[in-house]
Write a structure and sequence with these properties.
There is one protein chain. By secondary structure, the chain is α/β, with parallel strands linked by helices. Helix content is about 40%, strand content about 20%. The chain contains four helices and seven strands, in the order αββββαβαββα. A hairpin with a 2-residue loop joins β1 and β2. The longest helix has 29 residues, at about 160-185.
C-alpha cells in the first residue's frame, strides 16, 4: 500500500510540475475526466470520474445519459455532459476541479471549453488527451485549451501514467454505463408501449 501511495504521489507531483497546477491552500488536487461511449450513436452515455488525493473517488463518479443530440455527435455529447456537471458548481452543490481532462482531440476539447465559457467557468484548467498514432498507449498527445502546441510525453513519464490511469477509468465507467443503457433500451419495444 505504501508503494502504491508513493508511486501515486510521484505521478501527481510530475503532473503538477508539468502543468503548473496549484490547488487552493489546504486543498488536494482534484482531477475530473470525461469520456463518451455509444454504439453507432445509440444510447450515448458520458462519464465523469474523479481523482483526488492519491486515488480514484468512486463515490463521486457521475454518468450522464445524453439526449437530444444527433446520434454519434461526440462534440455535442461532451458539451452536454460538461454543462450538466458544472452547473452544480454554480449552484454551490458541486466541487470545483483543479484540472479537467477530456478524452479526445481538439474538437472535444473545444466543445468542453465552449460549455465552460457559457457557464462563466473558463478559468478552470482543461486539457484534451488525444490518442496517438495507431491509438497505441504511450503515444497520447496533450492538447491545451490556450493554443499551446500539443505535447507528447515520453511513454515512461510518471505524469502520463497518471493521465492514462484516470482516462482509462473514465473509459471503463462510460462503457459500463453505455452497456447498461443499451440493454435496458433493447428490452423494451414499441409493442410494449
Amino acid at each position: 500500500r505504501k508503494n502504491v501511495q508513493s508511486r501515486q504521489s510521484s505521478r501527481l507531483e510530475a503532473l503538477q510540475e508539468l502543468l503548473t497546477l496549484e490547488p487552493e491552500e489546504g486543498e488536494e488536487i482534484r482531477i475530473e475526466c470525461f469520456d463518451i461511449s455509444h454504439t453507432q450513436g445509440e444510447s450515448a452515455v458520458a462519464s465523469c470520474v474523479v481523482y483526488q488525493g492519491s486515488g480514484m473517488r468512486k463515490s463521486e463518479y457521475r454518468r450522464f445519459n445524453i439526449q437530444g443530440i444527433q446520434p454519434g455527435d461526440d462534440y455535442a455529447a461532451i458539451r452536454q455532459a460538461v454543462l450538466r456537471r458544472y452547473e452544480t458548481v454554480l449552484t454551490g452543490e458541486g466541487v470545483a476541479p483543479t484540472l479537467i481532462l477530456i478524452d479526445g482531440g481538439k474538437g472535444q476539447l473545444g466543445s468542453a471549453l465552449s460549455a465552460l465559457n457559457e457557464l462563466g467557468l473558463s478559468h478552470f484548467p482543461i486539457i484534451g488527451v488525444a490518442k496517438g498514432e495507431a491509438r497505441k498507449p504511450g503515444l497520447e498527445n496533450l492538447i491545451f485549451a490556450d493554443g499551446r502546441e500539443p505535447v507528447q510525453l515520453a511513454p515512461e513519464h510518471p505524469a502520463l501514467h497518471l493521465i492514462q490511469e484516470i482516462r482509462d477509468e473514465a473509459h471503463r465507467f462510460a462503457i459500463a454505463g453505455h452497456r447498461a443503457q443499451r440493454s435496458k433500451t433493447r428490452r423494451t419495444s414499441r409493442l410494449d408501449e
